[in-house]
UniProtKB/TrEMBL annotation:
Gene Ontology MF terms in the entry: ATP binding; kinase activity; magnesium ion binding; potassium ion binding; pyruvate kinase activity
Catalysed reaction equations from the record: pyruvate + ATP = phosphoenolpyruvate + ADP + H(+)
InterPro entries per record: Pyr_Knase (IPR001697), Pyrv/PenolPyrv_kinase-like_dom (IPR015813), Pyrv_kinase-like_dom_sf (IPR040442), Pyrv_Knase-like_insert_dom_sf (IPR011037), Pyrv_Knase_AS (IPR018209), Pyrv_Knase_brl (IPR015793), Pyrv_Knase_C (IPR015795), Pyrv_Knase_C_sf (IPR036918)
Enzyme Commission code(s) on record: 2.7.1.40
Name of the molecule in the record: Pyruvate kinase
Ranges for domain Pyruvate kinase C-terminal: 464-564
EC category name: transferase
Name of the encoding gene: Vigan.08G053200
Domain called Pyruvate kinase barrel: residue spans: 96-425
């Protein structure tokens, strides 16, 4: 995957002055001297038409802020109970940075099981609209929100649309069915009440168009395989040639002579059912929509436009990359979306299996370049649907590799939704992610990206440069944490894009921003009251976290803020500061 690189030249950014100071010894974390101020001068010749802006950008090293007597922010620390507990026990370096998404299903939909997953580190709960009724999904959403409000968790909710893909409506069982080799199954678009033995209802009357006797019908990318032995009208009689597991709502594809049978069903990305499911999500205040089978950016834009008119809160739209067409238009889809899910199960049907590892890495790279969070999904710990421990290959080759590639999040599907060991699977992701992140730091693997420049206007470019410099400074100085004060989360996302060594604590006063930041690598979102006075926000939040025992004397915190002072003229005032806790 090749992207055009548009990076500002060195002449656009230069050090203006460094005020006189006594030496700062970072190795022993002993600070001395006055405030160190660094000014950044931009070459305005490249930015014609921007003369109306008065930019003042500074970076500073400050000393002794712990002695400030300003009144602390009111209320609790703004941290969720899981992050607060981990921080208390493990410290800054022990916080896991890779986020974890769990698919909610019948195995984990009770209030007790949801609390177990939240306690185990679930950051986002995914609801797959291929399964269950709207009433069931509404009940789960309300349970999660209740846990957030009453127990102090911070679990975001994602609705994953069904899409217009052909799939199984019913196969005669409420859960998975083991398909035996040699058994004969009847696939039909006929809809009837109840169930019939060895009969599978599909959701599309034209599912068998252009299919011939001898073609292979593959369930969920290889979970089971059938051969078409007879075709009667639109119905197919199929013989199982590879035994396996048949899940509710399973997707299927047809193969002929070792190649996928490609057919243009001319189905819309969002079906009538999808729009009704989206309305449910809006009414219940979900945080993300994951759009299935996106083949072009227009469908993403249509949904975002719809949300802007129907929802009072900001709901993020993720696109699922699961077809060859979506790979061909990857960059335009990523640009239009708020994030990406690498749906490897369906993608593995469309492209050769041996290409999936490199395609996954390419997608993650493009998402980081364009500053969009990316989730790696499907079959990470597939064996744990049935067994209490994963295979070593799943941990070593798949989960660890996704963490090494710096995916923002990892997702459990059937492991949590229908498996008996969902919490154990979550614990495996948690432990493996933490260990791989630690190894990356020890091996100095956290190199900065050769960034694709995102902004076209001077204010946007200043913000990017500030965040890039902040992460490089944090890594070089070995600071313990990065604090960012942000209204809409943009600076937090730019910091996360660089995958810094220390964790990023994002302070915001917007609930939608907090829940969206929950998906970003290395970002711990905190909901607090913010003022227009950046210095006041910093001193108050530091005091509050000190009072909770979350930061201690000698900790070094790098501070980035996009909270501007109130002025009559348009001013972009952003800052980087390094503080030692006295």
């Amino acid at each position: 995957m090749v992207l055009k690189s548009i990076v500002a030249s060195a002449s656009d950014l230069s050090v203006v002055s460094v005020a006189g100071n006594a030496p700062l010894e970072f190795k022993n974390r002993v600070f001395g001297g006055r405030v160190t101020s660094l000014g950044f001068r931009f070459n305005r010749g490249r930015w014609k038409g921007n003369e109306r802006f008065d930019f003042k950008v500074r970076a500073a090293v400050e000393v002794g802020v712990g002695s400030s007597k300003s009144k602390a922010l009111q209320g609790n620390s703004g941290l969720d109970v899981v992050s607060e507990g981990e921080l208390t026990v493990k410290g800054f370096a022990g916080l896991r940075k890779t986020k974890l998404v769990c698919t909610i299903g019948p195995a984990c939909s009770s209030l007790e099981e949801l609390e177990n997953l939240a306690s185990g580190g679930m950051n986002v709960a995914r609801l797959n609209m291929c399964h269950g009724t709207r009433e069931w999904h509404r009940d789960v959403i309300r349970k999660i929100k209740k846990l957030n409000e009453e127990k102090g968790f911070c679990v975001s909710v994602m609705i994953d649309t069904e899409g217009s893909q052909i799939h199984v409506v019913d196969h005669g069982a409420s859960s998975s069915v083991k398909v035996e080799e040699g058994s004969i199954w009847h696939f039909t678009a006929e809809h009837f009440e109840g169930s019939r033995p060895f009969t599978v209802q599909t959701n599309y009357t034209g599912f068998s168009e252009d299919i011939e006797v001898g073609d292979e019908l593959v369930i969920d990318g290889g979970m089971a395989c059938f051969e078409v032995v007879e075709k009667k009208g639109n119905d197919l009689h199929c013989k199982c040639i590879d035994a396996g597991l048949f899940l509710p709502g399973a997707k299927f594809s047809f193969w002929r002579d070792g190649k996928l049978v490609r057919r243009n069903y001319k189905l819309p990305t969002l079906s009538t059912k999808d729009w009704a499911d989206i309305d449910l999500g809006i009414a219940e205040g979900v945080d993300f929509f994951a759009l299935s089978f996106v083949n072009h950016a227009d469908s993403v834009k249509d949904l975002k436009n719809y949300l802007s008119t129907k929802s009072t809160k900001s709901i993020k739209v993720l696109s699922k990359i699961e077809s060859l067409e979506s790979l061909h238009k990857l960059e335009e889809i990523v640009r239009a979306s708020d994030g990406i899910m690498v749906a490897r199960g369906d993608l593995g049907v469309e492209i050769p299996l041996e290409q999936i590892p490199t395609v996954q890495e390419d997608i993650i790279y493009v998402c980081r370049q364009l500053n969009k969070p990316v989730i790696v999904a499907s079959q990470l710990l597939e064996s744990m649907v049935e067994y209490p421990t994963p295979t070593r290959a799943e941990v070593v080759a798949d989960v660890s590799e996704a963490v090494r590639q710096y995916a923002d999040a990892l997702m459990l599907s059937g492991e949590s939704a229908i498996g008996s060991y969902g919490r154990k699977a979550l614990a495996v992701l948690d432990m493996t992610s933490s260990r791989m992140e630690s190894w990356n730091r020890e091996e100095n693997k956290q190199n900065l990206l050769n960034h694709h420049q995102l902004g076209a206007e001077l204010p946007e470019c200043i913000t990017e440069q500030i965040c890039d410099c902040a992460v490089e400074m944090a890594n070089n100085l070995g600071v313990d944490a990065i604090f960012v004060y942000t209204k809409h989360g943009h600076m937090a996302s730019l910091l996360s894009r660089n995958r810094p060594n220390p964790p990023i604590f994002a302070f915001t006063d917007d609930e939608s921003t907090r829940m969206a930041l929950n998906l970003l690598w290395g970002v711990v979102p905190l909901l607090v009251d913010l003022s227009d006075d950046a210095e006041s926000n910093i001193s108050k939040s530091v005091q509050l976290m000190e009072s909770k025992g979350l930061i201690r004397q000698g900790d070094i915190v790098l501070v980035v803020s996009d909270i501007a002072h109130t002025r009559s003229s348009p001013v972009a005032l952003q800052s980087i500061q390094v503080k030692t806790i006295a």
